[in-house]
């Protein structure tokens, strides 16, 4: 498509055939990075499918906490799949062109599930808050039905809010460059290429950023503030340690997911120019490492899942015993 003037006529929309994703191809040592994210993706798929399977088939794990963990594992699986196959395709086939409609699908899928990731981590902090601060009322407050409603509500909010945002892209004209300076069909870089008035889209994107990034961080901070107050009211150190130990796996996920995003966005708001390659690596890893670490952390740190894995392995060995070597 040939470049046109910087502003499109008011009575027509200039819609391109697609966009060119350039951040990955221009990154130094991109072959090493693509190999790394491929290993990360394979590990993510195997571990999350394994975790979902264990939770689904073991009725003892059909409790609110593991409903939230299973939901997070499903979100992780789809989030990684929305990014990595496309990045591998760009590197292997040297084809960085993404058709316009496929670009919108990838954009919608990524932002829906990155938003769900954020809110799913919030649900786990809610679960920890109820378990530690209101232990006597936990079973009456945090029921399976209530957890199912909460999970259903965040899926509805994310699916509808992101859909409204993405639906505005086809109403814009793109009459200049079609090179997207990101590692996928990213909303903000695509918006910068538009030659129409994008004030409405920027305002809506800002509101969604506050809803799905800032608000969850505030929620997590407040829940852990309540947890710390409850812990310090406990009479002995052993009870305090036991209560805080149940939060370890969740705090690891919070740190891995939110810290890179928090740093990058704060540097951007401060007017500090960040190397595009550094930004690409930081934001892509914050979206890809969390889905990989989540099932590993919950499998190793959670007693119920560890015991389930152990029982599966021992049952397998009892059915198919190892042959003694002669």
Explain what this protein looks like in three dimensions:
The chain contains eleven helices and three strands. The chain has helices spanning 30-57, 64-93, 100-133, 138-141, 144-166, 187-192, 199-232, 237-245, 248-269, 276-301, 303-319, and strands at residues 18-21, 97-99, 179-180. The protein has a three-stranded mixed beta sheet. Helix 9 (248-269) runs antiparallel to helix 10 (276-301). The longest helix has 34 residues, at 100-133.
What count of helical segments does DSSP give?
11
The portion of residues assigned to helices is over 70%
Sum up the overall morphology in one term: globular
Mean pLDDT equals 86
Low-confidence stretches: 1-9
Q: Order the strands across the largest sheet as they lie in space.
A: 2-1-3
The gist of it:
This protein has 326 residues and is mainly alpha-helical. It is 71% helix and 3% strand.
List the helices and strands and how they pair.
Blueprint: E1 18-21, H1 30-57, H2 64-93, E2 97-99, H3 100-133, H4 138-141, H5 144-166, E3 179-180, H6 187-192, H7 199-232, H8 237-245, H9 248-269, H10 276-301, H11 303-319
Parallel strand pairs: 1-3
Antiparallel strand pairs: 1-2
């Amino acid at each position: 498509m040939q470049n046109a003037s910087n502003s499109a006529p008011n009575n027509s929309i200039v819609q391109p055939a697609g966009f060119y994703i350039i951040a990955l191809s221009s990154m130094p040592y991109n072959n090493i990075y693509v190999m790394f994210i491929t290993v990360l993706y394979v590990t993510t798929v195997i571990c999350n499918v394994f975790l979902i399977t264990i939770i689904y088939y073991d009725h003892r794990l059909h409790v609110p906490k593991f409903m939230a963990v299973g939901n997070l594992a499903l979100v992780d699986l789809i989030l990684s799949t929305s990014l990595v196959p496309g990045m591998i395709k760009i590197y292997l086939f040297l084809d960085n062109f993404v058709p316009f409609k496929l670009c919108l699908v990838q954009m919608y899928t990524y932002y829906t599930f990155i938003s769900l990731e954020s809110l799913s981590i919030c649900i786990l902090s809610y679960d920890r808050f109820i378990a530690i601060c209101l232990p006597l009322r936990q079973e009456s407050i945090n029921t399976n039905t209530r957890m199912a409603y909460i999970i259903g509500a965040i899926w509805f909010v994310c699916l509808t809010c992101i859909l409204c945002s993405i639906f505005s892209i086809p109403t814009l004209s793109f009459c200049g460059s079609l090179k997207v300076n990101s590692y996928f069909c990213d909303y903000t870089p695509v918006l910068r290429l538009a030659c129409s008035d994008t004030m409405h889209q920027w305002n809506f994107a800002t509101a969604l950023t506050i809803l799905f990034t800032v608000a969850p961080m505030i929620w997590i901070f407040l829940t852990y503030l309540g947890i710390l107050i409850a812990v310090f009211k406990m009479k002995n150190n052993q009870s305090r340690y036991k209560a805080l130990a149940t939060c370890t796996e969740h705090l690891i996920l919070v740190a891995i997911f939110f810290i890179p995003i928090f740093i990058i966005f704060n540097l951007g708001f401060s007017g500090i120019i960040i190397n595009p390659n550094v930004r690409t690596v930081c934001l892509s890893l914050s979206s890809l490492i969390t889905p990989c670490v989540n099932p590993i952390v919950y499998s190793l740190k959670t007693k119920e899942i560890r015991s389930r894995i152990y029982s599966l392995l021992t049952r397998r060995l009892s059915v198919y015993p190892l042959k003694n070597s002669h």
